[in-house]
Design a protein that fits this description.
This protein has ten helices and eleven strands. The protein is of the alpha/beta class. The chain folds into two domains: 199 residues, P-loop containing nucleotide triphosphate hydrolases (Rossmann fold), CATH 3.40.50; 73 residues, no CATH class. Helix 3 packs across helix 4, helix 4 packs across helix 5 and helix 7 packs across helix 10.
């Protein structure tokens, strides 16, 4: 089966200049990332703030142009397209932004916001577009008569549902969710996550979930990619990554979740500067298991299915099991189930 999206050694560096405008380096936001997502699959990209995961999501859709590497969308070289050809392919890949209010134009009604991609990517008549808007609102749990309201008249959860409806309008095969529920309270998170899972199953969507909330990730993801300073350090099936993390950084992230009770694995020190990352493994300055080889060469992802970029991955002591019930994931599951019972 052809992946919906493939990233091959993608890089994005942002130049940094001093007060006089002279170049003094570059922020290596995305530094050689290779990933793929299949139809009907949820891939979660996790990591600390500033690791480059949001930039990676925007680069994947060419909202930010990559410096190098290849992006393939449904087998086609997406990174080589331009002009009308690029616009035509973009209908197949959409994004849900983190801020459900900031992503909606306050001067546009809900109907106009959802109708815009229909105008750009379909040949529907005005009546056809109005019917499609009403159908999309119904699918995301809102009433069709709400189409004539304005963004400020809705709650945060309702605005995120509108953003989801807009992302679905062009009939995409792939959706990237950049922290799509982080601005919502837990009960609304459960509703939106439940909605997303239903839509993924109904339309066989590929979904990339960018998040730092491991409880949400554990609840929804099929595979997980862990990112640190612009690089993927671990990638594999979600169940395996949570049950037996292979990279010390992944272990530290899981141990940092409140209630895990593994203080020994907590990270020490600050994240190095992305302008001048450490040589070799970028995590070795904070890693409790680092050896001499870790500062001498950059480890590549290795392994079958569950891969880690660590020279010591196979010799580390057994990881402490991750207790999902302390992360909110179990609570999200219960809330989502209750919401479905109450709302059919």
């Amino acid at each position: 089966m052809t992946p919906l999206l493939e990233l091959d050694n993608v890089q994005k560096h942002f130049p940094v200049r001093d007060a006089l405008g002279r170049p003094r380096g570059a922020v290596r936001a995305v530094d050689g990332v290779s990933l793929h997502v299949m139809p009907g699959e949820v891939l979660a990209i996790v990591g600390e703030s500033g690791c480059g995961k949001s930039t990676l999501g925007r680069v994947a859709l060419r909202l930010i142009e990559p410096d190098s590497g290849h992006i393939r969308l449904e087998g086609e070289d997406f990174s080589a397209l331009s002009g009308q050809a690029l616009r035509a392919r973009r209908k197949h890949a959409q994004i849900i932004f983190q801020d459900p209010f900031g992503s909606l134009d306050p001067r546009m009604s809900v109907a106009a916001a959802i109708e815009e991609p229909l105008i750009l990517h379909t040949g529907l008549t005005r009546a056809g577009r109005a019917a499609r808007v009403a159908d999309l609102l119904t699918r995301v749990g809102l009433r069709p008569e709400m189409a004539n309201r304005w963004p400020h008249e809705f709650s945060g959860g309702q605005r995120q549902r509108i953003a989801i409806a807009r992302a679905l309008a062009s009939g995409p095969r792939l959706i990237i969710g950049d922290e799509p529920v982080s601005a919502l309270d837990v009960s609304v998170q459960a509703q939106v996550l439940n909605l997303l899972q239903d839509l993924i199953a109904e339309f066989n969507l590929g979904f990339i979930m960018i998040s730092h909330d491991l409880g949400v990730v554990r609840h929804i993801a099929d595979r997980v990619a862990v990112m640190y300073l612009g690089r993927i350090v671990e990638e594999g099936p979600a169940a395996q990554v949570f049950a037996a993390p292979r990279h010390p950084y992944t272990r530290a992230l899981l141990a940092a979740v409140p209630g895990q009770g593994n203080k020994a694995a907590a990270l020490q020190g600050d994240v190095p500067s992305p302008i001048a990352p450490p040589p070799g493994c970028r995590f070795h300055t904070r890693c409790p298991h680092a050896a001499a080889a870790c500062s001498a060469a950059m480890p590549e992802l290795a392994g079958e299915g569950h891969r880690a970029a660590c020279f010591l991955a196979d010799s580390l002591p057994a990881a402490t099991p991750f207790h999902e019930n302390t992360t909110g994931g179990e609570r999200l599951t219960r809330l989502a189930a209750r919401f479905q019972r109450e709302n059919g």
